[in-house]
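Practice problem 4.
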């Protein structure tokens, strides 16, 4: 239904991912985190497990026995946990059709990486060109500020 683009300049992808996953789970959504590299997803998996005890984030790495039951599934392929929300990290492609079929789509990109910024611009144009409602959020002095909406 809507895509939110997060231009990261102060927080890491991992930190922002955790924050958005927590909010998504609070909303009652299952989430698929789409990445491009399994080794990178394994690192994220470990970081999510090592979070604060009071901030336990239930999740799994695709390829396990219980993928379909995972509240959060980290994957480089198809999400088998029937997510209401999808998240793209490290330039993973999310199609406008996929975004329209979900409650929310998050696209996180490193604002200090020119290639990542360019990929996000291409995704923004694809989403808005297909009629997906989109918001662009940027970090300013430790806060998220919406800079554009389409």
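Answer key:
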């Amino acid at each position: 239904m809507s895509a939110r683009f997060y231009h990261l300049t102060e927080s890491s992808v991992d930190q922002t991912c955790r924050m958005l996953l927590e909010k998504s789970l609070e909303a009652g959504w299952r989430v698929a985190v789409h990445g491009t590299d399994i080794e990178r997803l394994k690192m994220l998996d470990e970081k999510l497990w090592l979070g604060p005890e009071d901030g336990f984030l239930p999740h799994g790495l695709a390829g396990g026995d219980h993928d379909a039951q995972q509240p959060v599934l980290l994957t480089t392929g198809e999400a088998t946990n029937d997510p209401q929300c999808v998240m793209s990290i490290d330039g993973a492609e999310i199609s406008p059709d996929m975004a329209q079929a979900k409650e929310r789509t998050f696209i996180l990109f490193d604002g200090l990486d020119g290639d990542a910024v360019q990929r996000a611009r291409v995704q923004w144009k694809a989403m808005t060109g297909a009629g997906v409602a989109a918001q662009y959020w940027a970090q300013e002095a430790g806060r998220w500020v919406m800079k554009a909406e389409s």
